[in-house]
Specification:
Blueprint (H helix, E strand, L loop, with lengths): L5 H4 L9 H7 L9 E10 L7 E11 L11 H4 L3 E2 L21 E2 L1 E5 L3 E6 L1 H7 L2 E5 L5 E6 L4 E8 L1 E5 L1 E2 L3 E6 H11 L1 E13 L3 H7 L4 E5 L5 E8 L2 E13 L23 H5 L6 E5 L4 H4 L9 E3 L2 E3 L3 E2 L3 E2 L4 E3 L3 E5 H4 L5 H8 L5 H4 L9 H25 L6 H5 L3 H7 L5 H6 L9 H15 L4 H10 L4 H4 L4 H17 L24 H15 L2 H11 L11 H27 L1
Parallel strand pairs: 3-5
Antiparallel strand pairs: 1-2, 1-12, 2-4, 2-13, 5-6, 6-10, 7-8, 8-9, 9-12, 10-11, 13-16, 14-15, 15-16, 17-23, 18-19, 20-21, 22-23
Helix pairs in contact: 12-22, 16-20, 16-22, 17-19, 19-22, 20-21, 20-22
């Protein structure tokens, strides 16, 4: 059904038409990524010289209803339902069915002049299968997700506002153009904006011409879709508009399709059918930034899996779909078969992977043998488990019985059987580490690294040192890093003397047990970086990285190399403890 060109037929044109009013009169295009306003209660510069107000609702109007739609009664109030039914005889409100002058609405809104409440209409979220998330505290917002796909923030807006001389907050509800149009298509309807707009504007010849020499002018559409009121007010012009505008047609957005994509290294375009029949076993290389979308959301499973000597990183979504056989190659590459990419999953996920596909010339610039973040995390875990075993054995000798799992918070058996499935902190530590990593991301990763190993109980370490003859008064003052440093010092001296672990039982402390030891410098730097993340004092920690031998000039390109360096040095530090301690325990 043809609709009115609201912009062209509106009396106010050009620079005289305020931007917000122009937006209210404009139709919505077919861009599926656009977020469409479906309800607004906005106030700007309330009671000030440049005041501006918008009260807008969107009605679901059957396509068969002639265009344009006359001004709806709800345009003035700015809510679907105002006040509550009068309490009468039993059953007097049996027919209570809120509507916008007989039409359905996208957002249910209610107000009584003081209190206002908003929610996505029941028909909308039930027809589309949406699930809500509430954001509390000062935000008081609700977000609707389409978890079947998944797509997030399909619709969102504020839940409440109050009015006492002025509004407590602006309310704005927006909805994905694709989902809004899908709903309207299902209903055989179009989206009509019903709104009231008011603004205090500077005096202008364009508006004066419409007023025709009068101090107050009313203008109405012959078709009944708008009413305009302009009047003089304190040296300015007060513009008020009531209108109904055909904003969203009963036409769905063009669907995104993974068919007919061109992939690097593959001749011609690819469809699901041709990918499934790929006899040449084409291999696609992706930049591992592909994983960010999934790693940053708890809705997806992105636990890295070590199988048959390789690391797999295949995101999945709650048993509904999964990538498969995505293998890490080098520091920032993912290798996956073309056929695997097209195995059943939403087209948008394949399109997402396609956006990270690399040309063969780009792949050639990567070193396929460079260690990636998952393998580095694996080495860190191995060093930590070895330290837990060594400390557990040492504790048994001095009468402090604790398992390795109790000491480091990790179970070698659990990791062997289930990988990192039950250790999400390890998965987070192994998340994508681009060379362009930001300073804040680097500090956050350093903090995670430090907190994982810091589970080792200080009291246990203190009692081991006290069993070795170290003064209780001095050991009680030491933190975790200095306690490990003291154990390293004692272990090195006993190892140099070819002693076994029984030598830890003694009444006289080893000489120099509390001296600084450069072999554990990385753990001290890690502690400083953790503090830097908490207190934003990275500039103070930076010289410590230089002392370890890191070239800080490389930070201009990002902090990816810095996290590699810190993790390598921390792993080396654990190795420095494990080596003499392991030899002593083996004797």
């Amino acid at each position: 059904m043809p609709t009115v060109d609201h912009i062209a037929t509106f009396p106010i044109q050009g620079a005289a038409l305020p931007l917000r009013l122009r937006a209210l009169l404009s139709p919505v295009g077919l861009d599926p990524l656009e977020q469409v306003d479906v309800t607004n209660d906005l106030e700007f510069d309330n009671h000030g010289p440049n005041s501006e107000y918008v009260h807008m609702l969107m009605a679901v109007v059957p396509e068969a209803v002639e265009s344009p739609v006359p001004i709806l009664d709800e345009a003035g109030d700015g809510v679907v339902s105002h006040s509550v039914p009068v309490l009468g005889n039993k059953g007097s409100s049996a027919g209570f069915s809120p509507s916008m002058s007989g039409f359905d609405y996208i957002v249910a809104s209610w107000g009584d002049g003081s209190h206002y409440t908003y929610a996505l209409a029941e028909k909308v979220w039930m027809a589309l299968g949406l699930s809500p998330r509430c954001l509390g505290n000062e935000q008081q917002r609700v977000v609707y997700d389409d978890l079947g796909v998944p797509e997030f923030a399909v619709a969102e807006g504020e839940l409440t506002r109050e009015y006492y001389f002025q509004s407590s907050r602006n309310v704005s509800w927006r909805m994905s153009n694709a989902h809004l149009r899908k709903y309207l298509w299902m209903r055989g309807a179009r989206g009509v904006r019903s709104f009231f707009y008011q603004a205090s504007l500077p005096d202008s010849p364009e508006l004066r011409q419409l007023m025709n020499g009068q101090r107050h002018a009313d203008l109405k559409s012959d078709l009944g879709w708008y009413k305009i009121d302009i009047q003089e007010q304190r040296g300015r012009l007060l513009l008020q508009v009531w209108a109904s505008v055909d904003a969203v047609s009963c036409q769905m957005c063009p669907e995104l399709s993974a068919d007919n994509l061109v992939w690097p290294g593959v001749e011609g375009s690819v469809t699901r059918a041709s990918a499934n029949a790929d006899r040449d076993h084409h291999v696609i290389y992706l930049n591992d930034g592909f994983l960010n979308r999934y790693e940053q959301s708890s809705f997806y499973d992105t636990t890295p899996v070590f199988a048959h000597g390789q690391w797999l990183c295949s995101p999945s979504y709650r048993g509904r779909w999964s990538f498969s056989d995505c293998r890490r190659v080098g520091r920032n590459l993912i290798r996956v078969g073309l056929r695997e990419l097209y195995k059943p999953k939403p087209d948008q996920e394949i399109l997402h992977a396609h956006s990270f596909a690399l040309e063969p010339a780009q792949v050639a610039q990567f070193d396929p043998n460079e260690e990636h973040i998952a393998a580095k995390t694996q080495r860190f875990v191995a060093a930590l488990l070895a330290l837990g075993d060594n400390l557990s054995q040492l504790g048994a000798i001095v009468g402090e019985n604790k398992s390795a799992e109790e000491l480091v918070g990790l179970s070698a058996t659990e990791i062997k059987d289930n990988g990192w499935l039950h250790y999400p902190k390890l998965s987070r530590l192994a998340q994508v580490a681009p060379l362009s990593m930001s300073e804040q991301e680097f500090l956050g990763r350093c903090k995670s690294l430090h907190e994982i190993w810091q589970k080792i109980p200080n009291g246990f370490l203190k009692r081991i040192l006290q069993a070795a003859g170290c003064p209780k008064g001095e050991t009680e003052k030491l933190g975790s890093v200095k306690l490990l440093q003291a154990i390293l010092n004692v272990s090195e001296r006993l190892d140099a003397q070819d002693e076994d672990a029984n030598a830890f039982n003694g009444t006289n402390a080893q000489e120099g047990w509390n001296e600084p030891n450069e072999r554990l410098a990385a753990l001290f730097v890690g502690y400083d970086l953790r503090i830097a993340d908490a207190h934003e004092t990275f500039s103070l920690a930076l010289p410590r990285l230089q002392d370890l031998g890191f070239d800080t000039a490389s930070l201009q390109q990002g902090y990816g190399r810095a996290i590699d360096f810190v993790m390598d040095k921390v792993i080396e530090a654990f190795g420095h403890i494990n080596e003499p301690l392991g030899r002593i325990l083996a004797r």
